[in-house]
Amino acid sequence: MESKIYVHGGKILSGEVTVDGSKNSALACLAAASLSEDAITLTNVPRTMDIDVMVQILQDAGKKVKFLDENTVTVHGCIQNTVLQSELASKIRASAYCLGLFLATNEKAQISLPGGDKIGDRPLDIHLECMEDLGVEYEIKSGAIHAERKESITEEVVFLRYPSVGATCNLLILASKINRKIILKNVSKEPEIVDLANLLSAMGVSISGAGSDSITIKGTEQLKGGIAYEIMPDRIESGIIMTAVAITGGACKINNCIPTHNLALIRTYKKSGVEVIQGGEDSLYIDGKSTYKPINAIAMPYPGMPTDLQPLLAVYAQRCEGESVIKDSVFPERFSYVNELRKMGANIVRRGNMIQIIGNKLLSGAPLKGSDIRATTALVCAGLIAKDDTIISGMYHINRGYPNLCGMLQKLGADIVVK
């Protein structure tokens, strides 16, 4: 039977923690590192279940991928198998990056449609229509994408009708081996895109504009190996620690974080009453209070509030005096956790992609079920401020997203047991 998370609320969190590397960035960088046949070393890689699945996918494709220690991975060898079966593809959303990888290295790919969190409709249509501009022909049959890259590129300027993070990553990976200048417009500005672009640049790809809405890239057939690259810190994990400390009224120093990656969250919490002090370029200090002013937040593409933090905001709003409003313009269906919070006594009304929360109400522990990575994380945080015990099913989701989140909270004084 799967382990459950037991949280006894009422503890004030305090202390000092160090944030792990970004899972989302590491997944894309593992695919990008596989473009070279020579060895690429990635450091600060978080050892999560999703990372382990991606490693297995690349190994099945012919790459030699090995953990040198808990957070260091080497990747080398050739892509030999460009058929990705559903057994692995269905486990993680990032399996979609193999489409760009296989087409770049072998020009043909058969990719079963990817899996991942159930947070609403997440089609690959933007990936595919933009890849058509780069000379890719495809059809979808029997639950898989069958694609082939032809010699001709129909467009040198490729426009994304929505700044999709996944599509931007896939296009950068594919274009990295096309020896022709390509301009990608209306791309994602997320820090994970900058991280991926920095790795590709170190591998010999000419790339500029990452972090803006327009990226210019010129690839090369021979990408360099023999380099080491450090994955950026996980801005979502940083946001979780900020939230957990703030809602318990505690104080904490957060190391190995990049405050500029979380400006939307920091601004929201500071206006609400949390004291947030930036300690240089790689640390934050959080000093919480007992109650806060209500918040009004909208999850949107970067530099806006990350959709991955949207469930955490709903928990934070429980500590606010009055009515808070939270919208999600990225994944309008990402509210599976709402009914679980209601079981704890939360006063939440949902209207489409918006929820209204009347806060400052004591939550009561209850048996809960997490349905995805971020929802389960939010329920764990809710347990921190609940009376009595909260029992959460969904440890699988936590393990998918974080190397040791419960241990990190325990270090800060949370009463959490996993069994």
Brief digest:
With 419 residues, the chain is α/β, with parallel strands linked by helices. The chain has helices at 23-33, 49-60, 86-89, 97-105, 125-133, 165-175, 191-202, 235-247, 263-272, 310-316, 338-343, 373-384, 395-401, 405-411; strands at 4-8, 14-18, 40-43, 64-69, 72-76, 83-84, 108-112, 136-141, 144-149, 157-159, 181-185, 206-208, 214-218, 227-230, 251-255, 275-278, 283-287, 296-299, 323-328, 347-351, 354-358, 363-364, 367-369, 386-387, 389-393, 415-418.
Describe the structure.
- It is a single chain.
- The N and C termini lie close together (10 Å).
- The chain has two domains: 4-20 and 233-418, Enolpyruvate transferase domain (UDP-n-acetylglucosamine1-carboxyvinyl-transferase, Chain); 23-230, Enolpyruvate transferase domain (UDP-n-acetylglucosamine1-carboxyvinyl-transferase, Chain).
- Helix content is 31%, strand content 27%.
- A four-stranded mixed sheet has the order 23-25-1-26.
- With 419 residues, it is of the alpha/beta class.
- It is elongated.
Q: Structural class per helix/strand content?
A: alpha/beta
Number of domains: 2
Oligomer: single chain
CATH superfamily of the largest domain: Enolpyruvate transferase domain
Q: How many helices in DSSP terms?
A: 14
Q: Averaging pLDDT over every residue, what do you get?
A: 95
Chart the SSEs and their pairings:
Blueprint lengths: L3 E5 L5 E5 L4 H11 L6 E4 L5 H12 L3 E6 L2 E5 L6 E2 L1 H4 L7 H9 L2 E5 L12 H9 L2 E6 L2 E6 L7 E3 L5 H11 L5 E5 L5 H12 L3 E3 L5 E5 L8 E4 L4 H13 L3 E5 L7 H10 L2 E4 L4 E5 L8 E4 L10 H7 L6 E6 L9 H6 L3 E5 L2 E5 L4 E2 L2 E3 L3 H12 L1 E2 L1 E5 L1 H7 L3 H7 L3 E4 L1
Parallel strand pairs: 2-15, 3-14, 6-7, 10-11, 18-19, 22-24, 23-25
Antiparallel strand pairs: 1-25, 1-26, 3-5, 4-5, 7-9, 8-9, 11-13, 12-13, 15-17, 16-17, 19-21, 20-21
Helix pairs in contact: 1-2, 1-7, 4-6, 5-6, 6-7, 8-10, 8-12, 10-12, 12-13
